[in-house]
Amino acid sequence: MQCQTVLPGTECTFWGKQGCIFSEGSCQTIVEDCEGCDRIVDSTIGRVCSAYPAPMKKWSSGICNFATHVKVEIKTEELKINPLKASKKAAGKK
Fold it and tell me: What angle do CA 55, 48, 24 make, to 5 degrees?
């Protein structure tokens, strides 16, 4: 349904027939960690996240999974393969 309070006319998953069904009753403004994200929109109460109504809760447990400005580095460890075992395994596949 469409939001009627913070972002009038915008599709919102937290808007129901009784109004905003989010536990706080309305979206909250962004936190400092959100700066630079593509999901930030200007609303009647200030700058809010278009993906989630409580940005502080998303950042409390680490990196927000909706953040478009944060790049997560995946550490990959190079597996050490015993060359003797690798040659035996390759010879067995023939």
Answer: 60
